[in-house]
Amino acid sequence: MLFRILLMLLSGLYLNTSSAQSVKFIKNQYQAKYRVFITNNPKEANQWIYKVPGPTDIRKPGEWYIVKNQQLFRDAVSLFKVNKKDEADIIVYYVSTRDSAKIIQ
Predict the structure, then answer these.
(1) Range of 56's domain?
(2) Could you give the 3-state DSSP secondary structure of residue 78?
(3) Dihedral (C-alpha) 70, 90, 45, 75: value to the nearest 10 degrees?
(4) How far apart are CA 50 and CA 64, in angstroms?
């Protein structure tokens, strides 16, 4: 449990930089930096994410640009989507407004 908490804190710090908020979902979990569970329950999430339309639109933590062309964005953080929250390093709830985006510590 302590390891998971430390990992969540580190992931929150790591995802706080603009370049790190460009993310890509990949199919190989062993090559991914983080495993992500996407929830419909905001109380489960440790990150409320607002998806921005482009990489230059990222303004604060909790805003992600989800890369469409992975060749152009090799430095984007690689994520693997999991089906169970117990398997996740990060639990994400997508929000519909930019003001709602935040990293929950």
Answers:
(1) 2-103
(2) strand
(3) -30
(4) 6
67's tokens: 């890369």
How many structural domains compose the chain? 1
Is the torsion defined by CA of 26, 5, 41, 58 positive or negative? negative
Q: Which residues contact 48 (CB under 8 A, 6 or more apart)?
A: 42, 62, 92, 93, 94, 95, 100, 101, 102, 103, 104
Side chain identity at residue 46, one-letter code: N
- Given pLDDT bands bounded at 50, 70 and 90, which one contains residue 9? very low
* Global pTM value: 0.78
Query: Scanning the structure block, which residue is given the tokens 């929250």?
Result: 85
Q: Are 91 and 43 in contact (CB under 8 A)?
A: no
Band of the pLDDT at 69, cuts 50, 70, 90? confident
